[in-house]
Amino acid sequence: MADLSVKFAGLKFKNPIVASSAPPTRNLRCVQKAIKAGVGAVVPKTINFEESTQTRPHPLYYRANWKTIDVKSYQERIPKDASLVARDILCAYPPEKFMPVLREMKKVTKEGNVVLIGSVMGRTIDEWVELSEMMDKNGVDMIELDFSCPSTPLWSSALGKGTLEVAQSPDAIREVVRAVKKMVNVPVLAKLTFQTNSPCEIAGAVKEAGGDGVTMFNILHGLMIDVETATPIHGVHFASGVFSGIWIKPLVVRWIAKTAKEVGIPISGSWGIQTWKDILEYMMAGAGTVQFASVIMAVGYPVITEMLKGLNKFMDEKGYRNFDGLIGSALDKIVPSYKEYDKVQPVLTAVVDESKCTRCGRCTQICFYDAITLKKESAKVFRERCIGCTGCKFICPEGAIFMEPGDEATYLKALTLEI
Question: Which backbone phi and psi does 128 adopt, to 5 degrees?
Fold first, then answer.
């Protein structure tokens, strides 16, 4: 069996799975359940000094586009187009009352060889530092600075910004990370927002300030409207809640890969993970660990155990002894520009396997170059019109269309061919 342990931001994790800061880690009992299921680390709910966030907003967990899928696998029970829409509070305990709970969490995480990551959010520089010091003195192994919780737009008076604005400001993040790093003795992560033009720039600021890693990303607000009544669903502050689902995964993977390549800072991938394959995709893009909570909230803690089994099976079948050769393994295969891409991607043309074609006509409906027509026997490709876009290949329900090398001159002519 492969060794699933990873070294991340200077610490050893027994596996890369992190139960992120959310209801599944809200108290000692929940943390114990996550540990029993097999996580490598837990992040309890974020502490801060704003009393209102300990009771408001009223928690609400709504499943959009949900339908029950009766299958054995926990990972396959979640519809691919589903979203978990949530409104939630931060830690229900004031910081000073949470410290005894944190110490109990430390006992069980230490016994289970699980990394304990403390999550904090301040309104001022002094608060960021004070909360981080409290976490450090009460036994956490790592601190995560929650710059990006969308449910709680706290005012950060010393910085003249709310938390979202701080999350979008390299200067503000640099200032907070630098101040915290001077006062604590454990690694410090910054949890970033997706809502910025360049997450790489923000991650770079964290690195410059001495931060030990970043979490990419926290979830974002979205709004749903009931078209029958023209009424927002649970709408407040132009949002139904914060959305999570597998649909966001390609966007997150893109920024993880770009940040890993251009910034070179340890990354904990988060948001959009549903299966063990998603974990591998994040790690191949450059993430050293992965965080999730929505999938646990959708189907329960056993999904963690199932993911670990999937990872073990994959690693054994592929001959990986550990994650050393897997983390970031896709980065060198990403072509930096379309100019270079032309060198590795040849011109293609479509070909129809007549023995498989059922003449359903789907390929003709989506070919915008009029390169396919239906004949008596099967669909037929006119090579002089085909640009090799592969659209027909992936729409064919019978797998009757395949691609083969084409011709550059024919391709260029087909682009402007008038019918």
Answer: -55, -45
- Give residue-wise pLDDT tens across range 218-233: 988 889 999 999 999 8
- Cα Rg of the chain, angstroms: 25
Which of 332, 205, 166, 194 minimizes the C-alpha distance to 269? 194
CA angle, residues 279, 284, 287, in degrees to nearest 5: 70
CA distance 385 to 76: 41
Is residue 1 one of the residues assigned to a domain? no
- For the stretch 128-150, pLDDT in tens is 999 999 999 999 999 999 998 76
Residues 369 and 302 in one domain: no
Q: Where does 263-405 have alpha helices with state H?
A: 276-284, 294-299, 302-318, 338-344, 362-366, 391-395
Q: Examine the fold and report which residue of 311, 333, 355 is the final residue of a domain before the chain moves on.
A: 333
C-alpha pair distances (Å), 107 with each of 187, 242, 384: 19, 32, 70
| Contact predicate 212/266, CB 8 Å | yes
Residue 342 neighbours by CB under 8 Å, 6+ apart: none
User: Confidence band (pLDDT; 50, 70, 90) for 268?
Assistant: very high
CA distances for 400 relative to 290, 378, 379, angstroms:
38, 10, 9
Neighbours of 267 (CB within 10 A): 31
Cis omega (within 30 of 0) for bond into 217: yes
Domain end marker among 333, 358, 384: 333
Q: What is the pLDDT of residue 337?
A: 83
- What would the pLDDT profile of 229-252 be if each residue is shown by its tens digit? 999 988 777 788 888 999 999 999
Give me the pLDDT at residue 168, please: 85
DSSP 45: P
Structure tokens belonging to residue 263: 């910034």
52 or 373, greater pLDDT: 373
**pLDDT, mean over the chain:** 93
CA distances from 17 to 66, 231, 236 (A): 25, 39, 33
Q: Is residue 401 part of a domain?
A: yes
Range of the structural domain that residue 386 is part of = 338-415
Residue 157 has pLDDT above 80, yes or no: no
- Predicted model pTM: 0.92
Residue type, 100: P
Hey, what are 75's tokens?
Answer: 């990972």
Q: If you write DSSP's letter for every residue of 12-36 in order, what string do you get?
A: EESSSEEE-SSGGGSSHHHHHHHHH
Beta bridge partners of 352: 401
- The number of angstroms, rounded, from the C-alpha of 330 to the middle of its chain's C-alpha atoms is 17
In angstroms, rounded to a whole number, what is the distance separating the alpha carbons of residues 156 and 134? 19
- In eight-state DSSP terms, residue 62 is E
